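Exercise: predict the fold of this chain.
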Amino acid sequence: MTTNSISETEAAVLSPEAEEREPEKIDKTVFRSALESVLFVTGEPIPKAEIAKLFGLSLKELDARICEAEEDNARERRGIRIYATDDTLQLVTAPENNEWLIKLLAPPQEKNLSDSMMETLSVIAYRQPVTRADIEAVRGVRCEYAVQQLLKQGFIKELGRKDVVGRPMLFGTTDAFLRRFGLHSLEELPPMPEPETEEQEV
């Protein structure tokens, strides 16, 4: 006999409440395992927005889960850590294990930055976004070579053009800059030194 009635399961699926119900969030253990696999396979920093989309999380939820995962990693003394900046995530080794890595791989060779490059990088870090003319106004010397070398090494990037006559290029720092100096955010930059003033004689 034909009937127009529907089952309780069908009714639950078709109800307005079911349409509004949020999808179940990924389990904590599954999330950490999957995240470590994703970061390990890529090897490079991945935008947080991309990770959040992958796991169906908001950026706020992702940050909370990363903090929780890092607390677990530190407590369990795991050999890998999740290195987070404002915009990206990357899998790195635990800093307390550096001596073992050095013994195995020998000290990593990092290209030293010249004084002019360090001065230029400092101006960009604290004043970004800045143009080359802005940097030269602070330093008092030309900085074309230093800017090109910093771009080549990936410590700075082009952010677009300033809306003034000539439309000069604007520069800012990258995540590579943060990692080089052990920072997670530009907010961790030390305060700028106060300008020296001559003491007035009374």
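Check your answer against the key: Strands lie at 46-47, 80-84, 88-93, 156-161, 169-173.
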